[in-house]
Amino acid sequence: MLILGLTGGIATGKSTVSSLLSHPPYDLPIIDADLLARKVVEPGTPGYQKIVTYFSPSTPDLLQSASEEEGSDGTEHGPPLNRPALGRRVFGDTPDRRRDRAVLNSIVHPAVRREVFKALLYHYVRGHWAVVLDVPLLFESGMDRLCGTVMVVGCDATTQMQRLRARDAHLTEEDARNRIGSQADVREKAARAEAQGGVVIWNDGSREELRASLHQAMEEIQRRSPQWWAWFLLLCPPAAMAAALLHWTAARTRWLEEEKSERAKL
Predict the structure, then answer these.
(1) For the whole model, what pTM was predicted?
(2) pLDDT tens profile 7-60
(3) Is 200 helix (H, G, I), strand (E, B) or coil?
(4) Exposure on the CB side of residue 99, measured as CA atoms within 13 A
(5) What one-character DSSP code corresponds to residue 76?
(6) Which helix H or strand E contains 153, and what residues bound it?
(7) Contact 63, 57 (CB under 8 A)
(8) What φ, ψ does residue 232 adopt, rounded to 5°?
(9) pLDDT in tens, 181-217
């Protein structure tokens, strides 16, 4: 089974690409790390308890009020997290924000990885030739090591800011800049994907242009990883593990060599 890692910057169009891949002509199952990240911090979960314990003293509005939580699930275990308030606490480039973001990631990422492994096993057993692993922090979390191919969706900085402000109208310009700045530059992600033999889709145009770029990218991916190869790996798990290890080792070597070469130019 081919694991197609999908990533990009916030508001670059990654979710649109994910939606397109889940529908004809691709019909690929999607493992959405954002949805899993919400699941693992629902009230009553260990992740929820750890976040409340750490962030409550510094974030008085960490939990939703009674009026906000009306209709929410899981309130018998406590009010849901106030995600905008938590976002304001962790997004930014000050030492406190970076420290708190690292703490939040240390709580959420291991729990998400466990859910991802369970979902991968489920789709593997069901015999899918490929699955999309949709992870905003694919490289940062090290989950690119699981992927046979990585796809990065990017756009220019001005377009990214405009889309983010239009999508999340409650964000101030400073909030939006902090959210974009808290992630690795999408150009760096694109370079890393290309170094690993992945594909990059630049989404600066219309939806139809994006659809056409995706079609071209998927044709290339299917040429490299035909379905007969996916079925062979499905029926022979040791070969699948060996192929994944060889691919990741070669990709990581190429990326490290390029990083070393770029530093030598400075």
Answers:
(1) 0.79
(2) 999 999 999 999 999 999 999 999 999 999 999 999 999 999 999 999 999 999
(3) strand
(4) 6
(5) G
(6) strand 149-154
(7) no
(8) -60, -45
(9) 888 899 999 999 998 889 999 999 999 999 999 999 9
